[in-house]
Specification:
The complex is a heterodimer of chains A (464) and B (242). Chain A has 464 residues and is α/β, with parallel strands linked by helices. Chain A has helices spanning 4-12, 15-37, 42-58, 60-73, 84-97, 109-114, 116-122, 132-140, 156-167, 175-191, 218-224, 242-256, 292-296, 311-315, 317-322, 333-344, 351-354, 361-365, 372-386, 391-404, 407-424, 438-443, 454-463, and strands at 77-81, 102-105, 126-129, 195-198, 202-204, 209-214, 228-234, 238-239, 264-268, 282-288, 429-430, 446-447.
Amino acid sequence: MPTFSERVRTAAGQYTLQVALGRATGQLGAQRAAAFSSLDHSDLIRDGARAVKMTLLRDLGRHLSRFEERLIANGVHVHWAETADAANQIIVDIATRRHAKRILKAKSMASEETHLNDALEQAGFQVVETDLGEYIVQLGGDRPSHIIAPIIHLTREKVAELMHRELQVPYSDDPQTLARYAREKLRGEFLQGDIGVTGANFGIIEDGSICIVTNEGNGRMVTTLPPVHVVLMGIEKLVPTLADLDLFLKILARSATGQKLTAYTTLVRGPRRAGDECGAEEMHVVLLDNGRSRILAGETAEILGCIRCGACLNICPIYRSIGGHAYGDTYQGPIGAVVTPGLKGLRDWKELPFASTLCGACQEVCPVRLEIPRMLLSLRRAAVQETATSPQLKFAIKVFARIASRPRVYRVVTRMVRAIMRRRATQGWVTEAPGLAAGWTKVRDLKAPAAVTFQEIWRRRSKT
Amino acid sequence: MVVHLFHTCLVNEIYPDVAMAAVRVLERLGFEVNVPLAQTCCGQPAYNAGFHPDARLAGRHTLAVLGATTGPIVIPSGSCADMLIHQYEILFHDEPEWLEKVHAVAKRCQEFSQFVADFLSGASLGGRLSARVAYHPSCHLLRGLGVRTPPKMLLQAVNGVELVTLRDEEECCGFGGLFSVSNPEISASMMDRKLSSVLQSGADRLVSCDSGCLLHLAGGLRRRASSVKVQHLAEILDEALD
């Protein structure tokens, strides 16, 4: 995979990406703000939702056991997967045992995380994404770039070209027509699915039900039409009661798309029972760890309270500048910068927590008020402790910190630096700086330090 | 009453006029200003870069220098103020003896605009200046310290100042300390958005309460050969009072 800075440079060179992102995230952000302004007691609801998640995370093991008991009582097969590979293998095994050919999928971040599609295809199964965005991702052999809007990086013209090419349909860039193309194609698939795979927005402990929110209704078809329904969910996606769920439903769609509720809120509690008119005859829940318990034990544990609404992506000026692919993994934006190093370790992902100005916009919009800047700072500290740092930066900081506690030395050293910088300056500005400051003058000029510092002015003034 | 000025390292080395302006405004309000001369840097660059033990060296020094004084401490920077008021608590969380000093100092600290607005409590500072001013709310001031309106109120109270609102005004300008040199492409993209909204606004001055943001934005404006004047809030208030 290209390095983070290579990925950033790729993104920086894509003008259409910047335009598509700017427009779409701006719109989502505005819709979110409007939706919250019409919600009474929204601060209390957010505080309440946060408290539910934080309490749950403090005793996650016990809650998971209770959830498992309820699932089993409901007739659901429960599987525990410590790793992504283990989760994929469980699902491949289910498909093999059922002699499945075609597997339908609703949008699921957990399955993106485990690369479930690749595993199923390698095992010889056909996988069909049924969420419109994910379907287009699959058609184009692309990757999602936003946790709720997978093709936010594409303009509709790009989508039109893709559908025209891959589905052999007449070219149209009218969104309605494009959606119709996908719908016509997908209807046929729904009737021939052997297994439906979904994620879960929430697992409700008290009655063992799985809650899925969608806007296209595909989630409901995936859970009911095929004879087998498999849920792949992270172990953190629990809420204790249906009353708690109500809090989260009030904030999830508002944060994600600015809707009061999504078009479909589906609750599934076990396989079809005698007398039921629809539903899968067999249901499985795969509970995925894949690094979550490691996160839970560390300083970024509260990130597991994330409800994957994407509000932090839409508000994040970094995400809006570089798009989702630059984050290099399943989760993007501020949440990705915390989750990815947590799940996969800092060694290969330490650039992410540093790619932030700590502006705090994410924390401000987060419906469960996750302290993302604090967690980024904590990851930075861990990165410095555990991984190799640029020797140049390390040296500069070590020296700076040491002289900062010796005012006299500090004054001598800063005077030298000022003199060097002033010598490089023309008309009070440096246009090409050396060393670490080169990154600065790459994109802007640098005002030269003052000839006389404030303290020098102050001393003179005090004497007179 | 004596107030102590924590002028910040950046202001001392690059923008001495900002500190002088802050001093004059504070004196105009009747305060006697003391500058603890042993102050250096609060350690924020090291802290944000993840070098906590090094940040603690600078932090302990700052706490010792400021802890030796009594009375209000005024800081002409939202991010340095946030460092002292909020981040030291995290930095020194496992050193109880220092944590005590952190709390004692933190509660005496206020960012410049916050201090001035609090003191005036609605009264006008007066002054006159004909200018079309765009105000950039710096992130640590806005979201770190929760200071949203005081700088705008102070600007609006100046006779002749027309305050214009920037598009997406609460979006970060892309400075971010070391971020600006370690991620120049992203920083530049954010700066472009901010500067295009400044230029679009028709403002002839850009004002903020953080010299870091100003250094970054002024550098970008200069490369665009723009004539928009970049000033710290203290400078424009001081100019209006002249």
